[in-house]
């Protein structure tokens, strides 16, 4: 569990994986899809994922060069967990979600 | 997904649920089991979980009064997700985990 929490730490990490579960993405595509994320945070997160073997970064020698991010098999193996998270979220009623917390 | 991330935000939230998946717990038992958590954080988290319908808080009119926290069915329904997280974490090699990230 701790390893999961270490690698998928915080909402951005999970939302980036969710985006990449739909297929390879360029940096700008990720940035557009993840409303509110800064270029710095996205860069840092992708670099961490790359280092931890969750994402690959491929540079295509085109003009201009094209850089594509893609899930590795380890990253891909998060699919079921993220689907389960989404399904659980749907089982939470609006009333429960909006409950005031002091 | 966003609802999940909203309610299970951060490692402590997930680790508290993991602990309660093993059965009802008193505050002191939770605090002992969750190394490094402050009383303030634990109190705040439990209150949030209670408000969102994930945990119940039962006071037994004993001397001194006994307070027990327990997962609701909604909280209990997180079991499979947390097991999947733990299983995924075990599939991450030490080498991947320790990879340097600048």
UniProtKB/TrEMBL annotation, chains A, B:
Keyword Metal-binding: no
UniProt entry keywords in alphabetical sequence: DNA-binding, Transcription, Transcription regulation
Gene3D superfamilies with a match to the protein in the record: Winged helix-like DNA-binding domain superfamily/Winged helix DNA-binding domain
Source species: Methylorubrum aminovorans
Name of the gene encoding the protein in the UniProt record: ytcD
Domain HTH hxlR-type: 1-97
UniProt protein name: HTH-type transcriptional regulator YtcD
InterPro entries documented for this protein: ArsR-like_HTH, HTH_HxlR, WH-like_DNA-bd_sf, WH_DNA-bd_sf
CDD domains xrefs: HTH_ARSR
Keyword Transmembrane: no
């Amino acid at each position: 569990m701790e390893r999961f929490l270490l690698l998928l730490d915080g909402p951005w990490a999970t939302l980036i994986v969710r985006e990449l579960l739909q297929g390879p993405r360029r940096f700008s595509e990720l940035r557009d899809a993840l409303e509110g994320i800064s270029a710095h945070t996205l860069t840092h997160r992708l670099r961490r994922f790359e280092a931890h073997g969750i994402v690959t970064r491929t540079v295509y020698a085109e003009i201009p060069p094209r850089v594509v991010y893609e899930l590795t098999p380890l990253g891909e193996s998060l699919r079921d967990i993220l689907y389960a998270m989404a399904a659980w979220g749907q089982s939470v009623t609006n009333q429960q979600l909006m409950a005031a917390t002091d």
